[in-house]
Amino acid sequence: MATMADVARHAGVSVKTVSNVLSGYPHVREATRERVRASVDALGYEINVTAKIFRSGRSGVVGLSVPELGQPYFGELADEILAAARRHGLQVLIEPTGFTREGELAALRVPRGGLVDGLIFSPAALVQADAHLLDDLGYPLVLLGEQMFSSSVDHVTMRNIDGAQAATELLLDAGRRQIAAIGMLHAETAGSAWLRYTGYSKALEARGIEVDTRLLGWADDAWHRANGARAMADVLDSGVRVDGVVAFNDALAIGAMYELQARGLAIPQDVGVVGFDDIEDSRYSVPTLTTVDPGRREIANVAVDILRRRLQETQRPGAERGSPVLYLAGMRIVERESTPRRSG
Amino acid sequence: MATMADVARHAGVSVKTVSNVLSGYPHVREATRERVRASVDALGYEINVTAKIFRSGRSGVVGLSVPELGQPYFGELADEILAAARRHGLQVLIEPTGFTREGELAALRVPRGGLVDGLIFSPAALVQADAHLLDDLGYPLVLLGEQMFSSSVDHVTMRNIDGAQAATELLLDAGRRQIAAIGMLHAETAGSAWLRYTGYSKALEARGIEVDTRLLGWADDAWHRANGARAMADVLDSGVRVDGVVAFNDALAIGAMYELQARGLAIPQDVGVVGFDDIEDSRYSVPTLTTVDPGRREIANVAVDILRRRLQETQRPGAERGSPVLYLAGMRIVERESTPRRSG
DNA sequence: TCGCCGATCTACACCGGTGTAAATCGTTTC
DNA sequence: GAAACGATTTACACCGGTGTAGATCGGCGA
């Protein structure tokens, strides 16, 4: 494998001139530039990326830690982030944390090694009390989701309360009053479950409806479809009448629809269902699922953008650090078949 | 950030001794070892991975190029590969190719840069005629899937023909005779579509049934659900009677089930449906989907294993290169609700 | 006591680039 | 024609580890 020194010798210039040509330094005579280029081609030289990284301290690789790619929400999010990163010439090292605390702690340590310049982190097991772990990490971190907040870290997330509230209102507007909430978690006081529940209850309260605890479906493992079906079954088994369902994500909604249909209930005639996330599944479920689009692409783009800006700040030692950002992506309801048409 | 030299000074030993302690070199006195360990802790030293990579020429990062993580099959496959890699201390750089030729060619170039030691490559746009591109890449490559084959490259794939044949036989055994094949592609003469079609037609021929071209549903974009629904609609619109469906993947099957149910056909009573891939969706569709489990986890484990072995071969210059492997993972049918119970 | 040997530890070159400061060169200015 | 200046080019240190070869040390057999 040819090195820069080989090219320099071949072109009759110094190593540094070769380096200058390759890195686009402007003050190189055109003739020299061409001679170097010719030598590069002649020797089939390719720059040694690891040496470059070592010397410059920048790898151009950002870490992405998500719980699990098999879950469509995270798979699709990862695709968006990968695409955004690539548009800026960054590569992405994915670190799945498997919903475990150790996995997430390990992910936070990865960039310390130096191979990864910064991290986009979507926690699922760490909780608010762990927020101090995010301080002074020594590398740029962008937090996703609402598992935890920290005033010292950039954060990109979605309008959970507004989204869940809008979803609930959609059903209320259609005259539904017995609206179940699927996806409650015991452990949380600040995560997405709690926020979405808050939106749900706000919408009810605004109409003077009290929350009926029999309508709350608990899903304590994870927001997989199986738990949606089970939570829905629990609610129905309680004997309470149900004419609407707000599920805290699409997987839960699809699981809930499965259970409703298995019991002979028609969607949306008997029960209207709204999900959350707008994953691709929701477009092809039976019936297709009305859902909240939380602005996933926007989240990905903004997260990568913020990280890039922080990396640039790090590069210039003199530059001021901007203060941490909290960005809320836009939200909108995507109406499909699982909810009744709004009556004018 | 503390360096090895700082630790050495603090512990009163040479840099190399610190290096020896950290890399587990046996001939270090226990007292020295402990002194170094203490200094490492005291200074919060962490080894500079980029320097190590630069010096050793091995990054411990393998590339994974798949079309798209949002597609559950690839998301789940990526999870398995990431898990297998981690068990061996490897990290994974994912390069989504977006089903494009340029994306896949770019992915093949990534390891040349030096940051990635080897590549696990699941092509979707390159074709058999491009197989020569896989020769002499200068790094270990493991090929997944059946888009292309090359006798010079390690290859891990699944029993497509057997799987599709078994799926078709399952319906035949239940007395179904008008079995549609959903997911035909015009472009292929060797890819999974072709192989799965081969299995389908073999099963029919074994029973003396001729393939009825009206039962072939074409899905020329990609094997997304939308195309499954459309292909199913095309078949039904042709006026041919249908009592069974073999879909070439689960997403197509779920799309097809959507279309069947939209037309009032009952599954499995009127039409039995079998998918391929055993993605998580298939467990929660309505009805749940009988499918072919192609041994995804086995594929991931074997692919990582082969790559590891090749990387080790590369490390020892004297070592013999084993000849390229073609590994076929085990296959099995997972029976769920979408097919009639086998009558004894 | 001396020589030998393995265990332990160290000095130093080196991996392949990039940053810095300075040398060299050709013009332009006065 | 000399000083001044920007454009070009270069030498050299340096990033932070690891490999190699050799120094040092303590114990043991002769």
TrEMBL record, chains A, B:
It holds the Pfam family Peripla_BP_3. Residues 2-56 form the HTH lacI-type domain. This is LacI family transcriptional regulator. CDD domains: HTH_LacI, PBP1_LacI_sugar_binding-like. The keyword DNA-binding applies. Keywords: DNA-binding, Transcription, Transcription regulation. One of its GO terms (molecular function) is DNA-binding transcription factor activity. SMART domains: HTH_LACI. It comes from Cellulomonas terrae. SUPFAM superfamilies: lambda repressor-like DNA-binding domains, Periplasmic binding protein-like I. Gene3D superfamilies: 3.40.50.2300, lambda repressor-like DNA-binding domains (1.10.260.40).
